[in-house]
Design brief:
The structure is a homodimer.
Chain A (H helix, E strand, L loop, with lengths): L23 E6 L11 E6 L4 E6 L7 H10 L7 E9 L5 H19 L6 E8 L6 H5 L2 H7 L5 H7 L8 E9 L2 E10 L12 E6 L2 E2 L1 H14 L4 E2 L9 E6 L6 E2 L4 H20 L7 E9 L2 H13 L1 H8 L5 H10 L10 E4 L2 E5 L2 E2 L5 H7 L4 E7 L5 E8 L3 H7 L5
Parallel strand pairs in A: 4-5, 8-11, 9-12, 10-18, 13-17
Antiparallel strand pairs in A: 1-2, 2-4, 3-11, 6-7, 7-8, 13-18, 14-15, 14-17, 15-16
Helix pairs in contact in A: 6-7, 8-10
């Protein structure tokens, strides 16, 4: 795996103090799948009655584990459930053997924690095209089942890391009808980040009681403005998975109209999504791109993603160059409607261009000073309609090349 | 403009010996638009009777000169014509002043070489968003008109360079009805290369006599499999322009059925397109990606471009890593149909993967040895149908970051 890159300069100071979620317990193990001297498997046990929703990559070459999860997510059940994740091997493009490995692991998990096989969800992340040594995972399941603890979520976040430079967690505690309801989630992701429908590996748990169809529609909707609005490098993983489990252990029932819960879940999802960008391979700048005035929200996202994925925009940001011409270029190539002579561009509060040309009061030295910040905001107004979107990305640096031009990183 | 990067390691040994084209003469000048001590304007004078065809960027933020050319290309005329190109300033996103500058330059050219203003085509390439100092161009037109020479094409190729590390030319001499017909063309382009409809700046001249509608349909068709099949960095220019001028000076009439002429023109276009890739910013590898077995030719191109534009594929190539998993990833995200279990991947003659998994006879050391070559061929078979396409790209290296993260390169 080459030398371990240093912790991202954009990383949060520490892993957050996450609430324990009634009905969920965790365990991790060192199975030696690819890495030495670190955990590489995490197991989450979910109490009977847990509703599980998920969204997954739309890649045409998605992995065997993703296909298996997609099948199972349609299956409604009140039985206990489990999530098992390994790092070091993606079990993607492994032919018939890939499905066999998923079947072997899910059967072993089902037996170890006494849940139906149809309620065992697995994810694998790491190198593509090598057979998953599933026996190494199965061999650790008994001790993991015995070690399950509601306090293990931080360790679980570490076990699922690959090129990540820090573990990612986010949580929330809200009150519903005067009672506390808890949400805690973890994520992994650093490169091959351009989520399409779902993203990376993300697991979120809550003790709210939410019917599965309601949970699914909440998660699908919130995903659109969180994980589907980030990009590191425009490359979409074969393993992207987001699972949200609601155990109901709080006894508080959440319906589709509960704005407070939706908002808390959205905050946790957005925080995890932004942490993935903050751990973007080689990233030194965290960039928020907001697009307004587009013909539709979808067009605004198309423009935002064209800017966020442009190598020329991303290298200009790395070079702290307020090169707004490259933003014009990216808007022009996005494929969504734009009128050159109505475009306005701001860096932070600085109006750079409007009505198709540079703002006469623009002072480039001020914009150059702004670009030195670690957190940047780029705002583009199309002047066409009411469509808007916000997307998040990072810069493109020598660090990205170092990490990915290493032999088989 | 920062330090001048060294000549690309993929550059041809020398500028080719191009045939003179009857009816075309060239001149260049140092107008001091942005660069010092080099030519930055080229003028081509075309004899009366010349048919001119063109294709242009589809960018929604295309430049004033492109818009002007697009208007004029519809206008048929037997009058003499001129092409004027400046480097150093793209006159893009320059508002109302941009069109005024085009108008001023075209009027001055029309007067200097005595052709109708409607037959003056201009292109501008360089920095975006700064007003074009058109007076500096106009001031040199009289001396350029006096210096026009049929032998000036190599100098013209130099005058239109921006971040290019070598001038690009290609020519052909064919026989039609026992008489020689000549083709000669020049191009510029290095970064912001992901042509959409047309590309970069390309000017091709022939002494064949071709009616304008026939020439236009030939050029539009050939463009699809040449300039529209290359990418350096997935970013599309605001100035892409391809003009082809047929003077008829040879006296040889070419019709839509002339396969020999079409093939010669195709070879010149493809050669120029590949030279642009060979001068891709920071490039160290020239990569041919051929896709077969897709559901349609369009799908094959979509897959090819997804592979060619993937930062993870391009960095793996830079690192000489036969990381075929990243090719699977790129096929998966392209959006075109693919069946994981029918995919086959070859590096050169080496069969790496087939039927959704690694070839059992694959020896990675052989593929790693192959990847050390400067010219690489990647072949992907989808196993779905008869659709095929070939696209060309380069690797993504530290050199690209160096060139583009410099302040205002």
């Amino acid at each position: 795996m080459g030398g371990k890159p240093p912790r991202s300069p954009l990383a949060p100071d520490a892993f957050p103090d996450l609430p324990e979620i009634g009905g969920v317990s965790f365990a991790t193990a060192e199975a030696g799948i690819r890495y030495a001297d670190r955990t590489d498997v995490m197991l989450a046990r979910l109490a009977p009655g847990t509703a599980i929703a998920g969204v997954f990559t739309r890649s045409a070459t998605r992995s065997a584990a993703v296909l298996d999860c997609q099948d199972k997510i349609r299956f409604q059940s009140e039985a206990g459930a489990a999530i098992l994740v390994n790092s070091g091997n993606a079990n993607a493009f492994t032919g018939r053997g890939g499905s066999d490995a998923v079947k072997a692991v899910t059967a072993a998990v089902a037996e170890a924690v006494d849940v139906p096989e149809a309620r065992v969800f697995t994810s694998s992340t790491g190198v593509i095209g090598e057979p998953l040594p599933h026996d190494r995972i199965s061999a650790r399941l008994k001790e993991m089942a015995e070690a399950l603890s509601p306090a293990g979520i931080a360790e679980a976040a570490r076990a699922i890391m690959t090129t990540d430079t820090f573990p990612k967690g986010s949580g929330a505690v809200i009150e519903i009808d005067g009672q506390p309801v808890h949400i805690a989630g973890i994520a992994k992701g650093s490169g091959m980040i351009a989520p399409d429908m779902a993203t990376m590996l993300v697991y979120i748990f809550t003790d709210a009681a939410v019917e599965q169809p309601i949970l699914q529609s909440m998660v699908s909707a919130l995903n659109q403005s969180t994980f589907n609005c980030i990009t590191v490098d425009s490359d979409t993983s074969t393993s992207d998975t987001l699972l949200v489990a609601a155990t109901g252990a709080s006894g508080i029932r959440v319906t589709e109209n509960n704005i407070g819960f939706m908002e808390a879940l959205r905050r946790v999802m957005l925080d995890l999504a932004q942490q993935v960008v903050r751990d973007g391979e080689g990233a030194t700048k965290f960039v928020t791109i907001s697009v307004t005035g587009a013909s539709s929200d979808a067009d605004a996202r198309t423009h935002g993603m064209a800017i966020a994925n442009s190598p020329l925009v991303k290298t200009a940001i790395a070079g702290e160059d307020p090169n707004w011409g490259r933003i014009v270029m990216a808007v022009g190539k996005s494929g969504a409607p734009a009128d050159r002579d109505r475009l306005a561009i701001r860096f932070g509060e600085i109006l750079v261009a409007r009505e198709g040309w540079v703002n006469p009061d623009y002072v480039e030295a001020e914009a150059a000073e702004y670009m030195k910040r670690q957190e940047l905001e780029i705002h583009v107004d199309l002047g066409l309609g009411g469509g808007r979107a916000v997307v998040w990305t990072c810069d493109l640096t020598h660090g990205y090349i170092d990490i990915n031009a290493d032999y088989r990183s």
